[in-house]
Design brief:
homodimer; 337 residues; alpha/beta; Quinone Oxidoreductase, Chain A, domain 1; Rossmann fold
């Protein structure tokens, strides 16, 4: 059986380009005992995977993706053939897998069967009901401990995690300001996502000034998706006992430059503030309760899923690069069929 | 009555010098209703106060000390005259006060009557049984949550807070490495304080390499008294779920340079690590229990108080500058009589 794959063909120098990938077609080998055949229906495009496309990358979490192999990704698919009793045919699965039509696996990678009693759209499980939603929930509630009336900053607020994180802070009664890279996305954050205000960080004004103007009394919770200069600006404008949820550092992913240091870390002492990095994969046991809560919010209309869907495996490289360039509104997903 | 004072005479440019201070003598005014007269017996010399000796300093905690006024300090003294019923004559007091023989106050600044049922040396209450000890305890246990078998780094380990923090980690069963600025202090940290090893950060080797060699498997808890390059090096060599207790940033106090940014903050995400600033003054309610525990350790011989005592108010400027230059072994105290 034919299997189309999107390979990482070369390591990027500077921003990654579609030409760093190559779409090929191979022949699938037979499924062996203990394995099953997964047909991918959606790829989740996540900025965090960019760092493992960097030559020599190694962060004790994952190493650099090998060249000539399908690029790693969170995927959503269905078991179409099985010689593994725990994964019968028809099982829908969220996996840390790769960009190809089909995958043969024994499920030993991060593979989670999908439970969909509320009959939600399947692609939600690559977004608001997947790692994206769990990450937003953990960052805003477990790390950020946001409370009603607090002042919250969300960076990359028009991103997949950002749109969910911002909405969760809003439904908890906080005032929420998001950052985005264009005036169009800023308007969308206020009009569609429902944030209180948005900062276009690509204007000529210094970030320190933009953040100070948006938070004259300081920040209680900063949900950080970008690191870099915005993290420095936020750290320099905290309220006492502020919390910074370190989710990602997209400003340093798509580059081969060494990131500059973060300024204003000393402010964490004078403000008795906290900064914590987190990853959804540490919270497997909490995931069902988190997803049940998010499902409830979706059903009650308190939370919306914002999805940016691209059709066709062959369009994955362009869609991934567009997402890294910030051209997406909400969760970037590739639909295969 | 005559009152000698140590004034902040000029704001420093670069490292502070004894010539930035001036010893004068004034006449005390009478004590009014609601006030009392405190006779200072000890000054606690704390690196943290250096930052408020900087021109234009303002961090929402305290502003720059005014010129021509006695320099602020934690002090230890006794009420010798009182028109305030809550502070009768004979009361021994820990205060955030200033460098002078006598202070007239209504107690509205941070003033804590001393309870000394275990009959400890009075100057302990400016050190191991004062903010110093509380700070060490909070940073290592409340923020750091140190556990037996963990690998712990303490910077400025020969400092007042450092000697207590390192000992607390040891008595909890951790492996503890301290940093200091001379080989003599490094030897003292191992031989007298009882740490497992010490790093002389003034050798020519890069800090990143020194930290990596001392912690080949990474750091669980970093008790940070210095900020700057050592914080960058520690952040780049953490174990998963590491904790960084941000206590001070002495590397940036005694300078008029803008501190460089902290590198490796992104590692907090991949290691799911936490960094939190704290100040003892937020834990007034917890202080009695903390001090009772420390008193117990002192009585059982599990913890020692290391004190560096200078005699004479007139020697305070030199002693303070020596402390900032790292010439002290343990807690720096000035004894007035």
């Amino acid at each position: 059986m034919k299997n189309r794959q999107v390979l990482l063909a070369s390591y990027p120098r500077g921003p990654i380009k579609p030409s760093n990938f190559q779409v090929t077609e191979t022949e699938l080998r037979p499924v062996r005992d203990g394995e099953f055949l997964l047909r991918n229906q959606y790829f989740s495009l996540d900025a965090g995977f960019r760092q493992w496309m960097q030559e020599g990358a190694s962060d004790n979490y994952l190493a650099a993706m090998p060249l000539g192999e399908p690029a790693m990704s969170i995927t959503l698919g269905e078991v179409v053939e099985s010689k593994a009793p725990s994964f019968p045919k028809g099982t829908q699965i969220l996996a840390r897998s790769s960009w190809q039509d089909y995958v043969i696996t024994n499920g030993s990678d991060i593979t989670i069967p999908i439970d969909n009693p509320a009959n939600m759209p399947l692609y939600y499980f690559a977004g608001v009901l997947g790692p994206t939603g769990i990450t937003a929930h953990l960052g805003m509630l477990n790390v950020g401990e946001v409370k009603a009336g607090e002042d919250v900053l969300v960076s990359a607020a028009a991103s997949a995690v950002g749109t969910v994180a911002g909405q969760i802070a809003k439904l908890k009664g906080a005032r929420v300001v998001g950052t985005a890279s264009t005036q169009e996305k800023c308007s969308w954050l206020v009009d569609a996502v429902g944030l209180d205000a948005a900062i276009n960080y690509k204007t000529s004004a210094p970030l320190d000034r933009l953040v100070k103007d948006a938070f004259p009394d300081g920040i209680d919770v900063y949900f950080d998706n970008v690191g870099g200069e915005l993290l420095s600006a936020a750290a320099g404008n905290l309220k006492e006992f502020a919390r910074i949820a370190l989710c990602g550092s997209v400003s340093s992913y798509d580059t081969d430059q060494t990131a500059p240091g973060i300024r204003n870390i000393w402010e964490l002492v004078t403000k008795r503030a906290m900064m914590r990095g987190f990853m959804f994969s540490d919270y497997v046991e909490d995931a069902p309760a988190i997803l049940a809560e998010i499902t409830g919010w979706l059903q009650e209309g308190k939370l919306a899923s914002f999805d940016h869907i691209t059709d066709g495996l062959e369009n994955t490289p362009q869609a991934f690069c567009d997402m890294l360039a910030g051209m997406n509104f909400g969760k970037s997903i590739v639909r295969l069929f």
